[in-house]
């Protein structure tokens, strides 16, 4: 079999699907244009003039004169006008005018394609169990995370370009807050937060030193523990800054969605969806979850309810189910956002004074035109959580099937000799080429020993936990702001 084999075929087929089929059958476009989302059309100037009783009898407002000069002032109407906005289902033509629609469509559709490739690859690995192949689904997941970070960076820069409103100061403040929070979390002992970072870093340092010694180099390690944690804290600060406005927006949509629906089941799902990041955070807090499940107090004896590998598997499935729930209630949140146009008009009617027709039209139209910005802020953290979890499963050596036997070895015990797995015998390559291939295979095997599943398990566990913690922190602050500070 080749270096990639079946996985290469799956990748080529999915690339063809992305190029040929997805432009016509887009999951991202279906989420918006399935007929369930309604948006409010802004009234025309003639409609507003008729409501205000200001017919111009065929004259344009620019032709009105005052003291011999052309009056270019826009038409104003009373704020308490009896205005009823018309609703319309979102169509594919309407999406052409939406800001960030290409970025939203590409991210969602590529994420769907990458997820399909991942699970097909997982099925292939469970059936064929190849030992010398590179898992190409990891590349797909990394590409998805790169696109997510690019889109979040673009949205954050959009807020930075706004001179007024305080968005820039708020983003910088949260970045410093999350940097301090990350530094505090990184010094917490493993007895409370079970990431495996210390074990993974120790294994990485020792393996790197041994690898460099085998290459004839002397070294005390590629990086110090303090530098490693400082770099990780800076990355956490960046992620926290990117997730600030998605969390704040989610809090507002959560409150509006609760007011929009009266069904108890839907409200319960909305509450679970809002608390989903907190549930994910608690999955790594040992005294609350793992210690209680692994060693419950049952009278005089204490017997584990499940193995550690089973708990890791259930944790992965819990995150996937919570991500699926967040996707399921996405339309409810987007409709709550679209209703801000009607909410703004109703609030305007309670105010005294006048408003220009242009400002009124902008107030209503702006809500719809920024729908994809809100959709990106809702989808991007979901995609980050999903594909970080998928990488945690693959690179961390976890399994999708729970282990029922307490004495069964974990997934890290399988293929514990990466040199043998990554060093196939080049039997058909003669002479010098055979020696070069063997040397390259030994080097790759050594690198695989350095970047072991222990390192990836600790690093990706922490990043998954951190994304959930940032999203819950910002959404909780947004909930407090919109429910108490804005009300006051």
UniProtKB/TrEMBL annotation:
Entry membrane topology: Multi-pass membrane protein
Is Glycoprotein a UniProt keyword of this protein?
yes
The name this protein carries in UniProt is Transmembrane protein 161B
Q: Where are the transmembrane segments?
A: 106-125, 137-157, 169-188, 226-248, 268-285, 367-386, 462-481
**Protein location:** Membrane
Pfam families recorded for this chain?
Tmemb_161AB (PF10268)
What GO biological process terms are annotated to this protein in UniProt? regulation of cardiac muscle cell action potential; regulation of cardiac muscle contraction by calcium ion signaling; regulation of heart rate
What's in the keyword line of the UniProt record? Glycoprotein, Membrane, Transmembrane, Transmembrane helix
InterPro entries xrefs: Transmembrane_161A/B
Q: Report whether Transferase shows up as a keyword of the record.
A: no
Q: Name one GO cellular component term.
A: plasma membrane
Source species, domain of life = Eukaryota
Organism name:
Paramormyrops kingsleyae
Similarity annotation: Belongs to the TMEM161 family.
